[in-house]
Amino acid sequence: MHLRIDPTRLTTPHEAVGDGHYDAVIVGSGLSGAIIAEQLCKEGKRVLMLEASPITNKSLRGYNEYVTNFFVSPSKDNQSPFPENPNAPMPRTPTLRKLQPGEVNTNSYIVQAGPYVSDSNYTRTLGGTTMHWEAKTPRMLPEDFKTRTLYDQGLDWPIGYDDIEPDYQRAEREMGVSGDVAALRYPGGSPYPKNYVYPMQGLPLSYLDHMVDRGIAGTSVELDGETIPLQVRPYPQARNGVPNAAYDGGKGYTPVGAVNTHQVDIGERCQGNTNCVPICPVQAKYWSGKTLAKVLRMNDELDKGEIKILPQAVASKVEINPENGHVSGIQVKVYKTPGSPEHETITVRGKIYVITTAAIETARLMLASGLPSSSGLVGRNFMDHAFILCWGLMPEICGTYRGSSCTGGILDLRNGPFRKNQAAFSVDIHNDGWGWATGSPYSDLTSLVDDGNLFGGPLRQGLVDRLSHQLLLAFMIDVPPSESNRITVDPQYTDALGNMRPNLSFTTPEYSMRGAAYARQFAKTVFSRLGVDDHTQYNPENYGYVVYEGVGYEIRGGNHLCGTHIMGTSKNNSVVDTNQRSWDHANLYLVGGGSMPSIGTANVSPTIAALCYRSARAMLKQLS
Amino acid sequence: MNKTEFYAKLSTPANDPASLALAAIQGDGEAGTYLRGVYDQFLAFSVEVTAFSRFDLEGTGQGEAYFATVIQVVGYEILEQLLDTFTSIINQTGGESTLVRNDLLRRRLFGNERLGPIARNIVKLWFTGNWYQLPRNWSEKFGPAPKDVTFTVSANAYVEGLLWTTIGAHPAGAKAQGYGSWANPPRIPEFGSDAVVR
To answer: Mean of the pLDDT values across residues A471-493?
Structure first.
């Protein structure tokens, strides 16, 4: 499939303003922006899409430039493929540091106001964070939608699992999910309709997963009087595998290969590049370019709808008609090159406006426009999963550093009565070793050479002993919403174009810290069953270091951004309704994780994608 | 191109060091012969400290680039001193076991205040494709080298890192082993048994 963003698809500031008859202006080209555009164009609508960054990756050559950037970056951090752009900056972990009490770090793009430092990030490029995401796609659990009612924690959603279930199926088709429904049907798991299968068969578990499973299968843990059996289960993933002939009532599924290229040049099935984050070199992983390619083909070949894309266009202000509260336009700063702040300011207009720039940027834009909403909740209830990592060496060679980044995990602690007292978690087994925790394998190599004084054969033996035995468990811990965890803006902190930068005040709630403390104990139990040599160490100098009940932990973000414009039942308790439409501005939709009132223990993208279908239906109704 | 010209050209930023090194090594006359000799020593040293064969090392296509990198960052004098020390150790220990050779390599090369950090950096180059900034006390004692910052020699150098081969894996983002290969045990290549201490 080709991503034909040829010059006829691109628009200019002049045209975008003059062309005043768009049905929808969509801000952002990531997961939500692309799905909404696809749904609207399918019904013949005209869409203007604003993308803040240059769209380098619209061609295979540009995409490969990103891969090469990663190759030549000695730090290999999770934004290394994506070049610095002062006009549309993105958060980068190396700019973080531990904060002293009362200190604010203004050197990072997100001004870190503390007290906790968050390394949550997102990618500003064509495709948004789907360029960078890991693409695990578990659904949320039915209980995650009503945690207030069931566990007296967090907030209930105004809709439930059953309301969203058919849209999960649509999302799983669009993202091309490989998964094994049979292995995921278990008490406490997400219920799937009878006979449902994923579009593609599950990716095989890694050798490492099997070794872990061999050590824990048949054992259990006790928690709050409940016995929880343990085993390694596969994760569904939005990356291409073997099509499942039983999909769609036996109609099967055709995988979407790499966009921008011919399938012969780059394979369509996951090859195991072990590099899902920060970039899949062969586009086996879903990214929203695949959906955009579909939109363009729809436009060109089927003459359905029309999309125009305006690159290097940073939405700067949402303008409101004071008479009816409707959005009257979006002010956009269009720059010429990332190297210079020179830009022109235009206002683009449509019948409806859809902001899809993920929880932090969407809140930033609304607040910078002076629109905190009637409830005052814009920017508040910011959530990201709290991760703690536990790592050690398995007694035998496990072949770490192969496969997609994560194929399996322990999912049985995602739910249970214990959620009244402590946060649930999902456990990932990392096929990419200790990298996230320690900078492995580079840190191991330099340490064996510089400190271990090894060379030649002993060095090679040392590398096998140190790397091929690595096991890292990442605990993805539920974080309930809290109004004081919030994004704000402050005119003294701006980017190169003069747009206000997001400021983050964040504390990991005690409920989640109890989950983290249990996670560490749980890891010790699992390690003792596996005979793992535990190397976990939390460094007080790390930006994420937190002391809870006298014990130190490093808490990291999962880049699962939620909650800055939550949905609810009224304009007093929420920012958007169940269709992600703003209560205050009838032609404005804030679409994305920001609408989610809880995060549970599922990676957020499948839920975000599912909500897009619901919103698109409401938009089409509004436009008809 | 004679030796001095080659070394001078290497310090001109516009020139591609790997191609320059390749041209110099393949050059005619006395200079070519001389540089071929130095490069041969470089490869022999690399075989010794990586436990990969010359065939494996040349197979990465990175030898000339690493040779040029070392000269670019710290200069040819120090590299020649390192290689001469290595050659004299080999001459002195001909026929002896690896244990004896390694003992001398540690005492006279890896344990040498000036040469040790360079020797370790050559090992790291082969395994990762990265030049790592030298320790601060080295720069203070022997003078700062202007190009001595941590960098990846090239995209190909990263992809050809021997680290990944050593553990039967592949560099993250390249040389993937194929769908489902990860479900099987890794194939970790063997290396010369006399190199194993334990």
So the answer is: 97
Q: Which chain A residues touch B154 with a CB distance below 8 Å?
A: 72
| Record: contact A273-B154, CB cut-off 8 A | no
Distance CA A549, CA B125 (A): 44
Residue A459 has pLDDT above 50, yes or no: yes
- Find the length of chain B: 198
Angle at B34 between CA B33 and CA B38, to 5 degrees: 115
* In the predicted structure, residue A20 carries a pLDDT above the cut 80: no
Strand bridging mode A350-355 / A22-27: parallel
Query: What angle separates helix A289-301 from helix A31-42, to the nearest 10 degrees?
Result: 20
Triad A266, A270, A271: Cα angle to 5°: 75
Q: What angle do CA A3, B173, A133 make, to 5 degrees?
A: 60
> Does A275 contact B102 at a Cβ distance shorter than 8 Å?
no
Tell whether omega for the bond before A255 is within 30 degrees of 0, i.e. cis. no
Nearest-angstrom CA–CA distance, A186 and A248 = 22
Q: Which residue of B has its CA nearest to A435?
A: B172
ipTM of the assembly? 0.95
CA–CA–CA angle B160, B161, B163 (5° rounding): 140
Confidence of residue A1 (pLDDT cuts 50, 70, 90): low
| Euclidean distance between CA atoms A600 and A322, whole angstroms | 38
How, if at all, do strands A226-229 and A350-355 pair? unpaired
CA distance A117 to B104: 49
Which pLDDT tens digit goes with each residue over A505-539? 999 999 999 999 999 999 999 999 999 999 999 99
Residue A62 pLDDT > 70: yes
Say if residue A105's pLDDT is above 80. yes
CB-CB under 8 Å, A458 with B169: no
In this prediction, residue A263 carries a pLDDT of 54
**Domain annotation covers residue A252:** no
Return the closest-CA partner of residue A235 out of A408, A427, A410, A432: A408
Asked if the Cβ–Cβ distance from B173 to A67 is below 8 Å, we say: yes
Residue A102 lies in a domain: no
Write out chain B residues lying below 8 Å of A403, CB-based: 181-183
Helices (H), A302-379: 358-368
Q: Taking CA atoms, what residue in A is nearest to B192?
A: A457
Beta-carbon separation of B176 and A458 below 8 A = no
Regions in chain B scoring below 70 on pLDDT: 1, 13-14, 193-198
Instruction: Count residue pairs from A and B with Cβ separation < 8 A.
Output: 167
% chain A with pLDDT above 90: 88
Q: What is the DSSP letter of B191?
A: -
Q: For position A524, which CATH number holds? A: 3.50.50.60
How many Å from the N-terminal Cα to the C-terminal Cα in chain A? 31
Interatomic CA distance for residues A324 and A567, integer angstroms? 22
Which of A271, A446, A449 lies closest to B178 in CB terms?
A271
Closest approach of A432 to chain B, Cα-based (Å): 9
Expressed in angstroms, the distance from the first to the final Cα of chain B is 47
| pTM of this structure | 0.96
3-state secondary structure (DSSP) of residue A211: helix
What mean pLDDT comes out for the span A130-136? Answer: 96
Between B1 and A195, where is the model more confident? Answer: A195
> Which residue is closest to A278 within chain B, CA to CA?
B173
Number of domains in chain A: 1
Q: Which candidate, A315, A325, A313, places its Cα nearest to that of A367? A: A315
Range of the domain at A399: 13-92+123-175+214-235+258-623
- Is A243 within a domain? no
Q: Which sequence spans correspond to the domains of chain B?
A: 3-172+185-194
Q: Which residues in chain B touch residue A401, judged by CB atoms under 8 angstroms apart? A: 164, 167, 169-170, 172
Q: How many residues does chain A have?
A: 624
